[in-house]
């Protein structure tokens, strides 16, 4: 018998919101983390060392879907700045949400790589120019957010060591993601000078990001030793530490692969071979460091899981770091011709698929109900 006072379940879309326009008012950059996870999955599926019928088509479909997501999110977030400017600018004072500005260029980077991997094959070499223009835009955003957000941390925001999480990495790591993307772009360019410019810029971006990211990782380890794990709502942040490690390794491997030819074409014979060798050794070393973090992340996640993890958009933090580490693993297998890395890469991609399906399903349900449209920056303000 049904209790008459029991509220009936509603299937009305956006039922958790007082008005549909709250989707715009409550929209935050956190949503772009979904484009990061979806984009890296597309790239990982297309990079598998085994030929699976239909897999390339699935990967390309995910990439096209990701373009649609990125455009939709850009329109919604742009509309928020136009319609609710005073509320939107409050993000710069928020110690957590502001970090997610870094997800915008990182999501775009996966689309740029897709233009090179899928777009050229489908629409021709003209897509290289599209990728090049978008890459320089991505570089500009990565550099801007990589400086602006830390500056806000130092001058306007309130932070404490016991409240610190790995989300501090997000605005900083965007530059090294752009660097890895530059490693993909450079060999596609026909002009040797343009190749050289992209290659050198990418190495600068790598150095702009990685040392700062590793400094944050050092503080993060101290924070967890002194104050233990963050709140359950930040459970996925334990995987974020894998991001700069995996991307750092992948970036050096990609940049080193074509460094000999590009340096030689610009009068620096011998320099490229050094860059290639150092990139390979450093890539292997970073992969080993990432192995420690991924084991630690699994153990931490298991501990959170037993206590119960509330779903939020931060769950997309499970996907992108795992994705770039998978790509670095597959790249090592391709370069070293070692079956171990090929098998390990396939296992990691399979885990990535599982995580993407779980997080994607929960995101669709939460978005339909309107439960995920929450902006902490304006909590407490009158509607």
Structural write-up:
- By secondary structure, the protein is an all-alpha fold.
- The chain has a single domain, classed as Voltage-dependent anion channel (Glycosyltransferase, Alpha/alpha barrel).
- 70% of the residues lie in helices and 0% in strands.
- It contains 13 helices and no strands.
- The longest helix is centred in the C-terminal third of the chain and has 37 residues.
- It starts with 21 loop residues before the first helix and ends in a 14-residue tail after the last helix.
- GO terms for molecular function: sulfite transmembrane transporter activity.
- Belongs to the tellurite-resistance/dicarboxylate transporter (TDT) family.
- InterPro entries: SLAC1/Mae1/Ssu1/TehA, Sulfite_efflux_TDT, Voltage-dep_anion_channel_sf.
- This is C4-dicarboxylate ABC transporter.
What are the key terms here?
single chain, 383 residues, mainly alpha, Glycosyltransferase, 0% strand, globular, disordered N terminus
CATH class: Mainly Alpha
Strand content: under 5%
How many β-strand runs? 0
Please identify which CATH superfamily we are dealing with: Voltage-dependent anion channel
Order of helices and strands: HHHHHHHHHHHHH
Q: Structural class of the secondary structure composition?
A: mainly alpha
What's the number of domains? 1
| CATH fold group | Glycosyltransferase
Q: What's the tally of helices?
A: 13
Q: Mind telling me which CATH architecture this is?
A: Alpha/alpha barrel
Distance between the termini: 39 Å
Radius of gyration: 21 Å
Low-confidence stretches: 1-9
Shape by Cα distribution: globular
